[in-house]
Specification:
The protein is mainly alpha-helical. It has helices at about 1-35, 40-55, 90-105, 105-130, 155-165, 170-190, 195-215, 220-230, 265, 270-280, 285-300, 330-345, 350-365, 400-405, 415-435, 465-480, 485-500, 530-545; strands at about 60, 70, 135-140, 145, 195, 245, 260-265, 310, 370, 375-380, 390-395, 445, 500, 505, 505-510, 525, 555, 565. It starts with a helix and ends in a 6-residue tail after the last strand.
């Protein structure tokens, strides 16, 4: 009886084992067949990322030293020495540079620079009064505005404004901002809120790194590291292409099981900040991350072209019918290719070649066009290469005139390249002078019934963007042509007339002044964008100062106009 019972138990056990093994095998085969190769779970992504970090070291030839160097093992060098607390010596040095740059310019330019400085004081004072510590100010209502980092109170305007204040010699205002950051930023970042990796990098990491470069004060470096480390989980993807958004407290959103596409101008606009961060901390992990991005995206280009959307799962373009643009979704990727060359002390010749190859491919593809009225502009192929380029240019794309101008001396045909830069600057200027307000719209079309460089059914608002002034500033430095200063002064007068309010500056809903409020005044947007203080006012101030102030031989501006130093090559 006992033997029969034992035999029955053994058979039941073997049956259960057989069923269990069969189920495991079934689930394995089901998942293998059911899911495509591009479907990657969060755990798989993390495993792949960690394996990528721990593979045996590989080497490649360093273009600077012409030696084989390890490219996968994180390296460390001694961090840059810095000063704890307020660096009065740097302030005295900077004040002397500001004074000297003023003496080298005309009386008219000095007066105009002072006017821009007072514009900055006006905008900053309104923010301090009504929104201190908030991200932005709504100047008309006098309320805080959360801006693009909704759900946070992380002092965006403070971070974006500090290097502009410092450049103008407003050192006491800088100390107020620094004190708030020291006391509040760390705790205010410890919130479960999704933020844009791109925006957080160019504004917070870039702004804090710029202040470290200007002051050599340790606190700015430490806060920059804190902010950059918040972004690191975004890179925990199969190929190290960062996701678009990250949770400030919890990191990667583990609900994602398929990461989808990344936007070129977002994941391609990290190089300047992360490269400099490695330089000052000695932690090569930041540099390795952005070098990996460059390697992946350049390997996937289609005939030299880079599409606006890139697969995070496969590190490839989903189709050869790419959407290509120098405006939104593409813009700053091309900017950072060229500026990486400048930042490296002109040793990153690979970046320079990639930039020129990309611009040549864009022109060959037909994005550079000339309107019936003779205006040259860069159109867009947002719907794919198989379609004709749209006869429309975005205000965002006006930055390219400055980059082309800066790159002219390194091009095969310097005269033609510089002429193209000036033509683009002139086209963007036309979008301003053809508007009733004297301020250009968000986008403008060509060969329309209303003419060229006008908004014909698109977004006719002014959202305080800096790209046109940015190009005028760089071309002023490159060509020494005074017309760019005059164009900027016309713009300043328009800002004071239509955008200045009691407690700051605002945008316009319609630059053609067709939309008005109940009092007949142009309808205004009740927000003072932080980039107005980071970029627009900085460029306007610098154009009236001598070029020794933030010399382009020593500084390179990130896409938020935060100046970072030109670096000596890594040893």
């Amino acid at each position: 009886m006992v033997l029969l019972l034992r035999s029955a138990l053994i058979r039941r056990f073997l049956f259960l084992v057989t069923v269990t093994v069969s189920m495991i095998l079934f689930l394995y085969l089901y998942n293998k067949l059911h899911f495509s190769s591009s479907y990657i779970t969060p755990s798989q992504a993390l495993k792949s990322f960690k394996e990528h970090q721990t593979v045996p070291p590989t080497t490649k030839r360093d273009e600077v030293t012409d030696k084989r160097v390890d490219t996968t093992t994180p390296r460390k060098v001694p961090p840059q020495a810095c000063v704890t607390g307020r660096n009065f010596d740097k302030e005295k040095e900077w004040a002397a540079i500001i004074e000297e740059s003023g003496r080298k310019t005309s009386q008219k330019s000095q007066e105009r620079a002072e006017h821009v400085k007072q514009m900055m004081v006006h905008a900053w004072t309104g923010y301090k009064k009504h929104a201190w510590g908030a991200n932005e100010l709504a100047p008309i209502s006098g309320n805080p505005h959360s801006g693009i980092f909704s759900g946070t109170r992380i002092g965006l305007t403070i971070v974006d404004s500090l290097d502009t204040l410092y450049t103008m010699g407003l050192f006491e205002e800088v100390q107020l901002g620094k004190m708030w950051l020291k006391e509040n930023l760390t705790s205010h970042l410890n919130v479960s809120v999704q933020v844009s990796v791109f925006e957080f990098n160019i504004r917070f990491v870039g702004g804090l790194l710029s202040m470290f470069a200007l002051t050599n004060e340790c606190e700015y470096r430490d806060l920059a590291v804190l902010c950059a480390d918040k972004l690191l989980p975004a890179f925990e993807t199969p190929h190290g292409i960062p996701v678009a958004h990250i949770d400030l407290k919890h990191g990667l959103n583990t609900r994602f099981t398929n990461f989808g596409n990344a936007i070129l101008s977002e994941f391609g606009t990290l190089h300047l900040e992360f490269f400099y961060l490695s330089h000052i901390t000695g932690e090569f992990k930041y540099r390795n991350l952005v070098e990996n991005i460059r390697e992946k995206v350049t390997k996937a280009n289609v005939n030299g072209l880079y599409g606006n959307h890139f697969s995070i799962n496969t590190a490839k373009y989903m189709s050869s019918n790419l959407a290509v643009s120098l405006g939104g979704a593409g813009d700053s990727f091309y900017e950072y290719l060229f500026k990486s060359y400048l930042q490296s002390g002109k040793t990153d010749t690979h970046a320079l070649k990639l930039y020129f190859d990309a611009m040549e491919a864009i022109i060959k593809e037909g994005l550079l066009q000339t309107s019936g009225g003779g205006l040259r502009y860069f159109g867009m192929k947002h719907t794919g290469l198989s379609h004709s380029a749209q006869r429309r240019m975005e205000h965002l794309a006006c930055f390219i005139g400055g980059v082309i101008g800066l790159s002219a001396e390194y091009s095969k045909n310097q005269t033609a390249t510089l002429q193209l830069a000036e033509d683009i600057a002139s086209t963007c200027h036309e979008s301003y002078v053809r508007a009733a307000s004297g301020i250009g719209p968000e986008s403008f079309e060509f060969d329309t019934s209303k003419g060229d460089a006008v908004s014909a059914g698109g977004d006719s608002g002014y959202h305080m963007r800096p790209e046109v002034v940015e190009t005028w500033f760089f071309l002023s430095r490159v060509t020494k042509d005074r017309k760019y200063r005059e164009w900027c002064w016309d713009f300043i007068k328009a800002l004071d007339k239509y955008c200045k309010v009691k407690d700051g500056y605002v945008g316009l809903h319609d630059v053609y002044l067709r939309r008005t409020d109940s009092k007949g005044e142009p309808l205004k947007e009740d927000v003072q964008q932080s980039y107005f203080m980071a970029e627009t006012l900085k460029y306007l101030y610098l154009i009236y100062k001598d070029e020794s102030l933030l010399s382009l031989d020593s500084w390179v501006f990130n896409t938020e106009a935060h100046p970072l130093p030109v670096l000596h090559p890594f040893s």
